[in-house]
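--- STAGE predict ---
source: upstream dedup step, 1 unique chain passed
mode: sequence only
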Amino acid sequence: MKWLSPNALCAFASLLTPLAAFASDSHTGADSMQAAREALRAHMGGQKTTALFVDRLEYRSNEGDPVMLWDAQASYGGDINRALLKTEGEYLLDDSQTEEAEVQALYSRAVSPYFDLQAGLRYDVNPEPDRYSAVLGVQGLAPYWFELDAAAFISQRGDVSARIELEYDLLLTQRLILQPRLELDVSLQDVPELGRGSGLASIESGIRLRYEIQREFAPYIGVAWERDLGDTADFSRAEGESISRLSVVAGVRVWF
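--- STAGE serialize ---
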């Protein structure tokens, strides 16, 4: 038996390719198979999903002035394009009032397997006065498995600020996880009505130990340290406020 030449094999394969791709059409019908292919695409990556992720819902001792903190986001969409709603803030337990609260409405688009580019609007309910800001940020998994959430904000008054959050999960066991966390706030100018100075305004670091009873439900304990810096610290001193706060924290992380 003689072997076919490489050119003959290529020509033979090119004839079979379209037949193999649509061979089922001759048995089932082209319309039925087209509908089946569309359903396959929809159910294998094209579907829309909803998610709610509460990263932190915690009590903070705050050196005798306890607060309840929340940090959560909800999303709807596909793998590439999603709508996001983020919110975070602090509630003063002794004074029964909200110290800080913000909501962000964002469009998120996956620009790589690990990162999403986000843009939208932010509304600050507290502290007063109410503020609206344009948002441009990035969220995802940085090299060495650091979770990154960074954004720049431009308010309706032209103030420019930025926030960078970093988290890292260190698995002690499959359910017991130690999480260091770092947050930096930066401002390009002084904003006296908010008590925020230019430059690196504040830093927050902490560490939390959580136990995942279920993957979707994990209580935790830990410590958190906050400090105002530079001109922001000067504004805090002028108001008679502490520029450094150490807290014992206890809370829960939930997603579904």
